[in-house]
């Protein structure tokens, strides 16, 4: 819609010679403004519109304002501007529509670019809607995508750890790619949904990748330069042992002066090379990564060491709360992995430096299809907390199964840890709850696959993450609708009604469908060990990872109550500590997360646990069958290559769902001896 119109950009064209920039801000301003001019020129050239001057009655005026707070500019030739609404934050923008003419204004180039994409997203509605004067600002100030990419193509877990979309977009052949045009295309996708920070390497920092911080800085700078035109800043995951492994020091003790000086110098070098660098991400004392425990120090000591090094540059340290004992003995019933993050971090509340963000996985275990919300999010009011989500579908079908995660994230964001009158998780991390807020982060799902995400429909997850990070109150189905509109336009730019209907039918409820044929009632981790794809009910039962379900002939589930279990329920504030504690009130979908119950325990839904497993698994496979049929009805209405790829994936989903069904049902039947009330085939 934008491309067909007359568009004026009231900001200097910095791509031309002698151009000057009035806006304050980091270097990236210059390039982002050039991008905006380029986007407008390309869109209007492609669709028959025109770039015009601001005096030529443009349909769309994009204007960069000098100051932080401002009233909107009058639109040329329009009626007097309505009274100004609250000035947008520096990262937000204002949209005024007056009689079909639209003015977007912002005080920063990246915000103006986000405003431009907002208009693009709205399509015709941007121009035909009623008069309006709105400000849009991101709910979360920090919106980050983490890449678990390794430079080394032969890394143990693959080049992209938990990557299901081919190799890395950043690295190839053991080094940063020569051609980074795809990285810039990625930055463009991210800018279109308002993401402005990317961490470019795996949180498990192996020897090769550790050197990004030192020897490879010039190469990292090339990646930063490829992201910068779209206002995306670069972060690095670093190893806590770097002073030893890279600096040759005898220790990485966070209280050691030489160690402190080493990190200061390392940070100074990074910012001298990349002026708008964002900061560091750290996984410490977790799954074999080095950390402060080795020196008798805690995670506040560790995080503050790095925070002091990056503070002079305005940098941020994202310090992950994913810390637990991964060498547990399955015989030890007193250790509960779900408790670990809270036990390690809650006592440290108030000790983290201001520029530390403690990044908390949404659930206390590990990105399962269903788990409770992490109680850490309610336990650290004097700490910047960020919510960490997993866009890459490690435990949700690995981009072979269609699984739209928007509804799952919405549920987490909307969760109110203090009950109906309290703040939501989205408020906590936005700084509108009890604490200062640290934003939102997620593990990215893209790779060098031609569709970016392996399963073409998994692109919807990347889109939804960005949109929900910007505005957590958005409805996940509406977000999907936006994605469909932008992704499957017909020749006239609008989506075929049938395509829209089918994509909703395939994706809206796909997370519930996935849940129904995989692990029931919040039990988690019934996946094949290592790669985590497909069913293996007892695969993790006797391993050191702390991921058990304790099924026997009598029952199943983890007793995490205070009364008789691990006491995990006590990490929640009221009312949840009591809601989860009691069998009467614990929601069905989390029953086995909190309780060990007999197979014959009757759920609130009225059926027994065993019968629930049978019913949901039979129904889940049927839903996948319906999904396949629905998709196939689109033949000829979607691009052929997309259709082919989706069909391949759906065939695998149906095969895999059937395997899940049969293994789960048979397992429960063999353990429990409870027959299916409907006499269906159980092997
Ligand atoms: C999961 C995942 C690992 C990852 C870890 C993390 O356990 O399987 O690959 O390293 O999460 O978040 O650090």
> Major β-sheet, in short?
8 strands, parallel, barrel
How many DSSP H or I helices? 20
Low-confidence stretches: 15-27, 69-89
The SS-based structural class is alpha/beta
Query: Strand order across the biggest sheet?
Result: 7-10-11-12-13-14-15-16
Helix content: 25-40%
Shape: globular
Overall number of domains: 3
Q: How many strand elements? A: 18
Name the CATH class of the largest domain. Answer: Alpha Beta
What are the key terms here?
alpha/beta; Alpha-d-glucuronidase, C-terminal Domain; 20 helices; 18 strands; globular; 3 domains; Chitobiase, domain 2; 6-stranded mixed sheet; TIM Barrel; binds alpha-D-glucopyranuronic acid; 683 residues
Description:
This protein is α/β, with parallel strands linked by helices and 683 residues long. It has three domains: 2-136, Chitobiase, domain 2 (2-Layer Sandwich); 143-178 and 195-395 and 412-449, Glycosidases (TIM Barrel), CATH 3.20.20; 514-558 and 596-672, Alpha-d-glucuronidase, C-terminal Domain. It has 20 helices and 18 strands. It has helices spanning 28-47, 109-122, 125-128, 181-193, 207-210, 217-227, 242-245, 257-273, 299-310, 340-345, 406-414, 425-430, 459-470, 476-487, 497-507, 510-517, 576-581, 591-594, 609-632, 640-672, and strands at 6-10, 50-51, 60-64, 93-98, 101-106, 132-136, 143-146, 171-172, 175-176, 197-199, 233-237, 279-282, 316-320, 356-361, 384-390, 440-443, 555-556, 597-598. The strands form four sheets. Strands 7-10-11-12-13-14-15-16 form an eight-stranded parallel beta barrel. A six-stranded mixed beta sheet has the order 2-1-3-5-4-6. Helix 15 packs antiparallel against helix 19 (609-632). The longest helix has 33 residues, at 640-672. It is globular. The protein starts with 5 loop residues before the first strand and ends in an 11-residue tail after the last helix. Residues 15-27 and 69-89 have low confidence and may be disordered. The structure holds alpha-D-glucopyranuronic acid. Alpha-D-glucopyranuronic acid binds next to loops.
């Amino acid at each position: 819609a934008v491309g067909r119109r007359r568009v004026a950009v009231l900001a200097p064209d910095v791509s031309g010679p002698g151009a000057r920039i009035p806006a304050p801000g980091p270097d990236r301003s210059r390039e982002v403004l050039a991008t905006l001019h380029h986007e407008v020129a390309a869109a209007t050239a492609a669709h028959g519109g025109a770039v015009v001057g601001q005096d030529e009655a443009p349909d769309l005026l994009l204007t960069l304002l000098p100051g932080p707070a401002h009233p909107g500019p009058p639109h040329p030739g329009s009626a007097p501007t309505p009274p100004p609404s609250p000035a947008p934050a520096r990262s937000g923008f204002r949209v005024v529509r007056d009689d079909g003419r639209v003015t977007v204004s912002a005080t920063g180039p990246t915000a103006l670019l986000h405003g431009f994409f907002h208009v693009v997203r709205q399509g015709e509605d941007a121009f035909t809607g009623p008069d309006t004067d709105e400000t849009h600002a991101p709910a979360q100030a920090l919106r980050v995508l983490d890449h678990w990419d390794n430079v080394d193509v032969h890394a143990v877990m693959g080049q992209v750890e938990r990557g299901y979309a081919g190799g890395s977009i950043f690295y190839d052949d053991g080094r940063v790619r020569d051609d980074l045009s795809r990285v810039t295309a990625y930055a463009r996708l991210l800018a279109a949904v308002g993401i402005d920070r990317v961490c470019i390497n795996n949180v498990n920092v192996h020897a090769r990748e550790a050197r990004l911080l030192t020897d490879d800085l010039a190469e990292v700078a090339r990646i930063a330069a490829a992201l910068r035109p779209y206002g995306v800043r670069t972060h690095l995951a670093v190893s806590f042992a770097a002073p030893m492994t890279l600096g040759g020091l005898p220790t990485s003790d966070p209280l050691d002066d030489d160690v402190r000086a080493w990190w200061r110098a390392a940070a100074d070098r990074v910012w001298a090379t990349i002026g708008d660098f964002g900061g560091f991400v750290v996984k410490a004392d977790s799954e074999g990564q080095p950390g402060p425990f080795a020196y008798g120090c805690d995670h506040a000591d560790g995080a503050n060491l790095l925070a002091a090094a990056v503070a002079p540059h305005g940098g941020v340290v994202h310090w992950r709360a994913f810390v637990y004992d991964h060498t547990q003995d399955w015989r030890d019933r007193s250790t509960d992995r779900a408790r670990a993050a809270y036990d390690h971090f809650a006592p440290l509340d108030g000790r983290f430096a201001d520029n530390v963000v403690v990044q908390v996985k949404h659930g206390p275990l590990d990105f399962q299809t269903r788990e409770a919300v992490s109680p850490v999010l309610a336990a650290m009011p004097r700490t910047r907390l960020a919510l960490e989500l997993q866009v890459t579908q490690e435990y949700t079908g690995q981009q072979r199964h269609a699984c739209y995660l928007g509804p799952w994230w919405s549920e987490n964001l909307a969760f109110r840890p203090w009950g109906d009158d309290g703040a939501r998780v989205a408020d906590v991390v936005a700084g509108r709850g009890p604490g200062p807020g640290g934003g939102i982060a997620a593990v990215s799902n893209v790779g060098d696959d031609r569709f970016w995400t392996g399963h073409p429909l998994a692109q919807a997850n990347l889109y939804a993450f960005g949109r929900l990070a910007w505005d957590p109150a958005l409805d996940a189905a509406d977000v999907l609708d936006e994605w469909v509109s932008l992704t499957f336009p017909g020749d006239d730019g609008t989506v075929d009604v049938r395509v829209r209907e089918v994509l909703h039918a395939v994706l809206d409820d796909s997370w519930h469908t996935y849940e129904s044929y995989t692990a029931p009632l919040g039990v988690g981790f019934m996946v094949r060990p290592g790669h985590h794809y497909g069913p293996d009910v007892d695969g993790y039962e006797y391993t050191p990872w702390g991921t058990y379900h304790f099924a026997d002939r009598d029952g199943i589930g983890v007793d995490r109550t205070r009364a008789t279990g691990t006491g995990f329920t006590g990490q929640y504030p009221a009312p949840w500590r009591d809601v989860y504690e009691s069998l009467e009130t614990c929601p069905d979908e989390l029953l086995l997360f909190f309780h060990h119950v007999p197979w014959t325990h009757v759920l609130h839904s009225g059926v027994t646990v065993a019968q629930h497993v049978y019913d949901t698994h039979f129904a889940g496979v049927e839903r996948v069958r319906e999904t396949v049929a629905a998709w196939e009805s689109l033949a000829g209405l979607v691009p052929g290559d997309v259709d082919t790829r989706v069909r391949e994936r759906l065939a695998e989903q149906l095969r895999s769902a059937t395997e899940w069904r049969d293994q789960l049902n048979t397992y429960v039947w063999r353990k429990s001896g409870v027959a299916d009330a409907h006499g269906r085939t159980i092997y």
